[in-house]
Amino acid sequence: MMLSEGNQSIIPTFILLGFSEYPELRVPLFLVFLSVYTVTVVGNLGMILIIKISSNLHTIMYFFLSHLSFEDFCYSTVVTPKLLENLIVEDRTISVSACIMQFCFACIFGVTETFMLAAMAYDRFVAVCSPLLYTTAMSRSLCALLVAGSYSWGIVCSLTLMYFLLALSYCESSIINNFICDHSVIASVSCSDPYISQMLCFIIAVFNEASSLMIILTSYILIFITVMRMPSASGRQKAFSTCASHLTAIAIFHGTILFLYCIPNPKSSWLTVKVASVFYTVVIPMLNPLIYSLRNKDVKNTFRKLVFTKLLCHSR
């Protein structure tokens, strides 16, 4: 990856253009993204804290939710600080190794979240379709295995793709027309043939998306059939309400991914790609804790109790 001229070694660098073609929007965008990142950090860490200190939230569903919040916090922290930096500094260069490392960590948490949402869909399936067997079917050991498996597969995918990216050679300076070091843009600016790396990334992405969506769709089709067979309208409403937050998170997450990678000609619509990437990498990690807190009575009641207890302690 290192070029040499005479006795000097030149370390290849990338230039992240980000939103530099809109200089008049740099300050407004910085303030917006800083606000979003602040809400993301407070929301996700707050969700983890609420679940940890509240005994009535020590259930399987909230066990998965705490890990989802942790992934959203980490994913946003990998991407957003660099985005904020590039909006306020003129030097937008990033070393090849730093760029690949950003992709590596983003890949770990992105893939992990994909399968964590699938595990949560299976959890809802068991809760609705086999409530009497729920405790046995969703044992602590199985849940820990599902979480560990999601993280492990994310790490395997990331290290595999990183290995092939590091095997490529890069020119002295290349321009990346985005704000994030995505696999496709890193491979496309390499000076060597990136075909194997790009094909491997495509296969992994298709496998991850297809397998996770198959689990999710199968789970919710069976949930829908079970719910529609319930004789009581209140029972159907209660069953649907337990899945509403998760369904909303899935629709936003996978809908954005499918939109981002199904654009007919991305080279002619870089602004569209950037906006979709912002939504996927910056906005979604903020939305998940809001979705689960605003639509979940247990979380809202726990939050009110904590606030009330805190205020009561201070008043004394």
Strand content: 5-15%
Query: Gap between N and C termini, in Å?
Result: 64 Å
* Rg (C-alpha, Å): 22 Å
Model regions low in confidence, pLDDT < 50 over at least 5 residues: 2-8
In short:
The chain has helices at 26-53, 60-88, 96-129, 134-137, 140-166, 183-188, 195-228, 233-261, 270-294, 297-315, and strands spanning 3-5, 8-10, 13-16, 93-95, 173-176. It has 316 residues and is mainly alpha-helical.
Strand and helix map with partners:
Layout: E1 3-5, E2 8-10, E3 13-16, H1 26-53, H2 60-88, E4 93-95, H3 96-129, H4 134-137, H5 140-166, E5 173-176, H6 183-188, H7 195-228, H8 233-261, H9 270-294, H10 297-315
Helix pairs in contact: 1-2, 1-9, 2-3, 2-9, 3-5, 3-7, 3-8, 5-7, 7-8, 8-9
Task: Characterize the structure shown.
- This protein is mainly α and 316 residues long.
- Helices cover 74% and strands 5% of the residues.
- The chain contains ten helices and five strands, in the order βββααβαααβααααα.
- It has helices at residues 26-53, 60-88, 96-129, 134-137, 140-166, 183-188, 195-228, 233-261, 270-294, 297-315, and strands at residues 3-5, 8-10, 13-16, 93-95, 173-176.
- The strands form two sheets. Strands 4-3-5 form a three-stranded mixed β-sheet. Strands 1-2 form a two-stranded antiparallel sheet.
- A hairpin with a 2-residue loop joins strand 1 and strand 2 (8-10).
- Mean pLDDT is 85; it is low at 2-8.
